[in-house]
Amino acid sequence: MAEYAQGSPRQITDIYAELRVVMVQRDQLNGDLNRVKGRIHNWLDRFFPEYIQVFKDWEGKASLLTLKKFPLPQDVADMSADEIVSVWKTEVKRAVGRKRAESLIWHAKQSIGLTEGIESVRLELKFLLEQYEMLGRQMEDLMQRIQQLLEQIPGAKEMMTVPGVGWVTVAGFLAEVGDLSSYEDGRQIIRLAGLNLKENSSGKHKGKTRITKRGRPRLRSLLFKCAMVLVAKNEQLKTLHQYLTTRPQNPLKKKQSIIAICGKIARILFCLGRKRLSYDAQKVLGSIQQKSLQNAA
Fold first, then answer.
1. Does the UniProt entry include the keyword Chaperone (predicted)?
2. Distance separating alpha carbons of residues 289 and 271, to the nearest angstrom
3. Which of 154, 176, 160, 228 is nearest to 19 (CA)?
């Protein structure tokens, strides 16, 4: 198989093309959702800043019901704890205690939130909550579609056997890479992500070695985010990160180590997906584990 030209986009067809489209849609939808969440936060900061002291997570069922039924401090201040709890019980199966209701009333009475333009303020929050719920439903539909597509891709299930790697990461990886059978080596994927190294030098001057950053920036970003998670959650990659940053010869800086681990993750996912193998912790560390055992002896 002729190796692809560096930096040129690899053609992704059929199911992979569809997967790539829905992953782009997911990112866009996630951005829209985060913007609406930010506007709701801003609304609370202006009109009921004490609210988050009662509901640290305003996205919970009881909190959303509160924001729909009695969002403003003056609404809450006119109610009894029993009245508030009875409203919560209409939609929240898990009991929300009377103490929470009493705390909400107390904070409402102490509130320093703005009190002007109340009716327009209610309408503003109503529209924001409607947008939030609509985007949430769209995200659920999109996630279901992504999972359906993944179930049709050979090797995807095996890729998810890596501790700390979920189906969203696998979907994002395959959306950018495409059919793994069209690659012969994991290093091709590293080049596709722009994670291969180049030396900045001219004449007799020898510059620093950096990654090329050619290829697919979305793939590079996905691998970097994945590496940041796995060095904390995956025992083998955590050990590898510690080794690379503390080894006696040529220890890497933390960011350099993360970039090296990005390449490791790309090779692992390629191998598991291409060969349809489950994750083997013993093979991840390889010679590093042997050196550690020798040093311990």
1. no
2. 20
3. 176
Other C-beta atoms lying within 10 Å of the C-beta of residue 296 = 6
Compute the distance between CA of residue 68 and CA of residue 87 in angstroms, rounded to an integer.
11
Residue 64 phi/psi, 5-degree rounding, is -60, -40
Q: Are 271 and 189 in contact (CB under 8 A)?
A: no
Domain stops at, among 132, 149, 166: 149
Q: Which residue has the tokens 């009475």?
A: 109
Same domain, 161 and 280: yes
Q: How far apart are the first and last CA of the chain?
A: 46
Query: Identity (one letter) of the amino acid at 204?
Result: K
pTM of the model: 0.82
Structure tokens at 100: 């929470």
Q: Kindly report, residue by residue over 65-121, the tens digit of the pLDDT.
A: 999 999 999 999 999 999 999 999 998 877 678 999 999 999 999 999 999 999 999
Task: Give residue 289's domain range.
Answer: 156-296
User: How big is the chain by its Cα radius of gyration, in Å?
Assistant: 26
| CB 213, CB 231: distance < 8 Å | no
How many Cα atoms are found within 13 Å in the side-chain-facing hemisphere of 18? Answer: 11
DSSP readout, 47-69? Answer: H-TTHHHH-SSTTSHHHHHHHHH
User: Has residue 121 been placed in a domain?
Assistant: yes
